[in-house]
Structures are given as C-alpha cells and as structure tokens.
Known about the structure:
This protein is an all-alpha fold. It has four helices and no strands. α1 (8-17) runs antiparallel to α2 (22-36).
Amino acid sequence: MTVAQVSPDEQxxxxxxxxxxxxxxxxxxxxxxxxxNGELAGTTGELSALIGRPTTPLIDALRATV
Length: 66
C-alpha cells in the first residue's frame, strides 16, 4: 500500500474525480483536517458512561477488520 500526502484541495479533487458527491467531499476533507489538527483526539468519557462499557479506539476497531 502506498500513502500519498496531499493538500486538502488535492484530496477534494481526487474524491470528486472518483464520483464522491460534493457534500461528502467537503465533509471528508473537513473531517481529515480536524483529525490532522488533533481536534478529534480528546475524549470526555461520556459515551463510555452512557453505554456502560469502555469505548474502542477507532484504530483498534479498524485493525480488527484487517
């Protein structure tokens, strides 16, 4: 697998070229920017309290699918 670092504009162009609808292009680019900036890294523990068990980090859930 090859990973390419691309700008948000390049990412948007690639997604649009692949046929991704405009609203999802914007959502994906914005989400990736938030991840890069660490804005989605924090946790308050509220979800764990609500569901009554520890949550699974996204990376662990993704690794389990491979």
